[in-house]
Write a structure and sequence with these properties.
The protein is of the alpha/beta class. Helix content is 45%, strand content 13%. β3, α5 and β4 (102-105) form a beta-alpha-beta unit. It starts with a helix and ends with a helix.
């Protein structure tokens, strides 16, 4: 027998001998495409990794890994060929799924591979990314084929037939049963179809409504498109405006054009407004008061921001007793003010810009002012010497509020109207804000009255308030529902929508 015949790619895995020695300490293994990915991950401290050397994943390779590990995490390159390879791997490997075993998929950003990604972000970030982003094999298969399915009987039939066929390849009868049930339940869930809104012309609006035949139209905030509103009225389709709010500039414009404004807003059957001032403006120009209801903001109905406790612990281990404060949702013109204030405050400053693409710019400004600065997007954890940490990532705001006793909320020292304070309050963080808070003025005033947020006008005030709050033993444990009914707008919207759909105004 030739030596080349004794080595079969479909039966072997690169680095298996080393990786399997870790099975007594770790329950999961990464499966990547090539040996360079294995080298890159190992170099960064992730040694539970093997590669299938560029061949299609086989059931023999899955069976081999199942002997040592409970969770196989398949992580191929983040490009089109890597995705296609993942689809093939999923269909080949699902047949070997077992009750006590898992097969998961981890998808990297476009044009990244495991080697480049871990070198760029570090071990901890890669591990956190895995925890938050991996998909179980049945979730991945469903989402892949769902993307290719149109909302018509023929396409849905093909979709279901394909999923049944895949589920039936599973060798274990118990897993087969529950995977098939998962697929069928997901298929039967209410469907959401996303389409771009039509151009606001009579011809396009007419065709759009004729095609979709909606039972109800719902618009949000200030989406007032006259031609489709007229078509909705003409076709007797109930029309609902949610979460309406007018800025001071908008109020002046509406009052100046009262007759036109009255006509447009009267085309709505129901109008839910955030504030009393918006109701007063609408009634002033002639909209019937019985159509209007003050419900508060839909944005207050959101769930508490997610908080990754493992990341919190990682940070606290490094930070220790160091004082921390946060500048959240900052805009250009505010970063320099908070950085100057931090020179006098000391400790650790977290800056979470409103637009994360400004992260590098803020980091450069911070370094030019002499601060040891780190970008969240460039490393997972924090270093002991870090003085300014720029949180330029999505989906982690809950972490920064949880770490900070006090936070300055941006868009308020510059004229952006100030951002919603409810998220900070839900996570027991005291709030500082500038003079420009007209987007959520009523909420800020309620919080001010009970001593939970404080107005600042610049650097000096920020220093004074942060130092005072950091030295205070006062704990913020107020139930927001006592102060702000955070679910009123959503409850009222659902109630009225249900009424309209059942009674057809």
């Amino acid at each position: 027998m030739c030596i080349r015949d004794s080595f079969k790619k479909g039966s072997n895995l690169y680095n298996l001998d080393s990786a399997r020695k870790l099975s007594n300490k770790l329950d999961h293994i990464y499966l990547v495409e090539g040996y360079m990915d294995v080298v890159g991950l190992s170099k960064n401290g992730i040694e539970n990794v093997v590669a299938n050397l560029g061949t299609s994943l086989t059931d023999k390779q899955i069976l081999t890994l199942n002997q040592f590990f409970d969770d196989i995490i398949i992580c191929f390159d983040g490009d089109e060929s890597g995705y296609k390879a993942a689809v093939r791997a999923a269909e080949n490997s699902i047949k070997e799924l077992r009750p006590e075993k898992q097969i998961s998929f981890l998808f990297l950003p476009d044009k990244e591979d495991p080697d480049s990604y871990v070198n760029k972000h570090g071990r901890n970030y890669f591990v956190d990314f895995t925890t938050q982003s991996k998909l179980s094999i049945h979730q991945f298969i469903f989402s892949h084929y769902k993307k290719q399915t149109e909302n018509n009987p023929s396409s849905m039939a093909i979709f279901e037939k394909k999923l049944r066929s895949i589920a039936n390849t599973i060798k274990d009868d118990f897993i087969k049963k529950y995977v098939l049930e998962y697929f069928l339940e997901k298929i039967s869930e209410p469907q959401i179809i996303h389409r771009m809104a039509p151009y606001d012309t009579f011809f396009v609006s007419k065709r759009f409504l004729k095609y979709w035949e909606p039972d109800l139209a719902v618009r949000v905030e200030s989406e007032i498109w006259p031609r489709i509103l007229l078509e909705l009225k003409k076709n007797k389709i109930p029309n609902f405006l949610l979460n309406a709010r007018f800025s001071k500039k908008s109020i002046l414009r509406i009052e100046k054009q009262a007759e036109s404004a009255s006509f447009l807003f009267s085309l709505f059957d129901r109008i839910h407004v955030q504030e009393k001032s918006t109701e007063e403006t609408l009634t002033k120009v002639g909209v019937e008061r019985q159509k209007i209801k003050v419900t508060g903001s839909l944005k207050d109905s959101r769930e508490i921001l997610p908080v990754n406790e493992d990341i919190i612990k990682q940070f606290q281990t490094v930070i220790g007793e160091q004082k921390i404060w946060l500048a959240a949702c900052t805009h250009p013109g505010e970063d320099e003010i908070v950085l100057k204030a931090h020179k006098k405050i000391g400790g650790l400053l977290l800056i979470a810009p409103r637009h994360i693409e400004r992260g590098k710019q803020i980091a450069s400004l911070s370094r030019s002012m002499g601060f040891s600065t780190q970008l969240r997007s460039k490393s997972a954890n924090i270093r002991p010497e870090t003085v300014v940490y720029v949180a330029d990532t999505m989906g982690e705001m809950g972490i920064w509020y949880s770490l900070s006793k006090a936070a300055f909320i941006g868009g308020s020292l510059v004229d952006k109207g100030g951002h919603n304070p409810v998220e900070a309050m839900q996570l027991n963080t005291f709030i500082l804000h500038g003079p420009h808070i007209y987007n959520s003025e009523e909420k800020y005033k309620k919080l001010q009255r009970v001593g939970l947020c404080f107005r600042v006008s610049g650097e000096k005030d920020i220093v004074e308030q942060i130092l005072r709050l950091q030295g205070s033993n006062k704990k913020l444990r107020l139930s927001l529902n006592l102060l702000i009914d955070t679910h009123t707008a959503l409850k009222e919207a659902l109630s009225d929508i249900n009424f309209i759909l059942t009674h057809q105004l």
